[in-house]
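QUALITY CONTROL LOG
STEP: pairwise intake check
CHECKER ROLE: data steward
CRITERIA: each record must contain a sequence immediately followed by its structure tokens, with no blank fields

ENTRY 1 OF 2
RESULT FIELD BELOW
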Amino acid sequence: MGAEQVRSDTLQSLERGLAVLQVFSRDNPRLTLSDVARLAGVTRATARRILLTLQHLGYVRAEGRQFSLTPRVLSLGFGYLSSLNLWEIAQPYMEELVARTHESCSAATLDLPDIVYVARVPTRRIMAISLGIGSRLPAHCTSMGRVLLADLPPAELDAYLVTGPFAALTERTVTDPGRLRAIIGQVREQGWSMVDQELETGLRSVSAPIRGTDGRTVAALNLAAAAPRVTLEELRTQFLPPLLHTAEQVSLAFTRSGKR
């Protein structure tokens, strides 16, 4: 099926409705009708119809001139998490890894251009960013993102890389698509990724893949540590081995559960 046929079979009203839902964020928790229209790229009349529909369905509430999401939108995300079942499977292994390393452990899946957190066992707070299930971070500068990018089919990886250069979140962030491609290739060969202060100054992380029954990467697992406290060598020699072991355990448990 060609791209034109796929496009003709889509529901434009559904596309616009989902676009409206996605304009709400931590930075924009409450928006006016004009704000929604501008951010979603639709007319005021269209934004009004969509917001009224979402309000009728219980996904949006109106307070004066402003609109905000309701907790019902969580059902959309938790439907995915329930079908994946990763949190239930991975939690005991992640908790054991955190108890052993005393560092935070997270799992994420890929939703380009971001990764999305689907499980997390925190320890001490080491990031300026507050993370939880559903949080999104750029794939290009995160160790989990690079593990997930390394398993993309070549055409999908090419399509992603042509969207660069990428945003520099710190002075260490790799933004050049060619250099990022080389790094992803190395991650693919070695089976893990390490990132040193590319997402946030003072933060280092190492990640490994969680694989399904077909051997494809379904998620990534990481450990994150404060740079002043944990050197790169310590991250590689003391944290990577137990992380790889845990990722293997989760992968085996995941495949035994019948998930792909």
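ENTRY 2 OF 2
RESULT FIELD BELOW
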Amino acid sequence: MFSKMKTRSAFTLVELLVVIAIIGVLVGLLLPAVQAAREAARRMSCSNNFKQIGLGLHNYHSAFNKNMMQSGGTYGTDSTYSNRYLLSYLVGMTPFIEQQGVWEQISNPRAVNHNGSARTPPFPAMGPVPWHREYTPWMTQIGTYRCPSDPAVSTTNTEAYTNYAACIGDGVASNNHSCLDEWGEPMGWCTPARIGSFNRGFFQSRTAVGFRDVLDGLSNTIACGEIVVDNGNREVAGAVVNRGSDAQFFLTPNICDDTVDPLRPKFHAEGTNTNSWEASQNKGLRWCDGRPVMTSVTTINPPNGVSCSWAGDGSDAMVTMGSRHPGGAHVLMGDGAIKFITSSIDTGDRSRNTPAWPVNTSNTPRGSASPYGLWGAMGTRASGEIVAVP
């Protein structure tokens, strides 16, 4: 009579394997695109943070007719009741980037330790030295100061990082103090010629600089640069090599390249003396600390190049910009514009030979063009170079 029709209730094994293979191929094709999209979003957020810092810088200048000081604060040698003139520009930035609560804690005496216990006598207004871990504002991580592309986090919750540093120009010697001591007084051994060669950048350590001092033009001068927080892995982009008493890099900056591992050029070779992670002095480790190794950058080596310092305390340092973004790093120009500078930018002559420190200044004499090409010219504020900003 009537024959029963055969029905198919499932895929065959071969068909199922083909479908799985197709899905696997599609996932393999899509994952890099997804990761690239995520990094693009992080990079945009990173740039937006920098834009907020630029707006804060201009609003501060509108209020006070000068920039916030890099390595400023209160005088004195007592580590608890003064900050020894060591606060970064980011401290004065806080009320201008919607961090009024943090600023109120900093600008007033504070009678409470970070653990909640009472403190007598209280911390003074503007706080103690930047490494004092009982002072809550210094332990407060401010989101605007972190780039989402940088995954470094404090494993002890005792440090608050930053990825945005002040540009102090193309000099190394004495760029941590510009010949002013912890009382704000001139150091006797500094000659006028020496002082003029220090910190030729948008910021000058322990000295207030205004827009009128940027004679090369705000749109031609780097105000701040992006940095990678040191994660303890000897990465070239994040680590600062402690050269100890070897000050030869003052004279020929490319000497610092000799610690790079030739087989792994993004890392320093094993045994390289980098400052210990989260112990004392590291790049980006404390947003409140104005010393060069923490929150300053120089325009000598290109982005993601080698950083090195003369001493373990991060003084006299060549601190290089860098980022987790492929191929370069962001900079904030003096006019508030954000630029992405590639690691292949012209850096001129990094093997120059200048008089040795401290017999004579090892920095470029005042009024001279930077020897470090376009990069050095962008990092100086009043050298008169013609700059074609990328």
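INTAKE CHECK: passed for both entries
DESCRIPTIVE NOTE, ENTRY 2: Confidence is low (pLDDT under 50) at residues 354-361.
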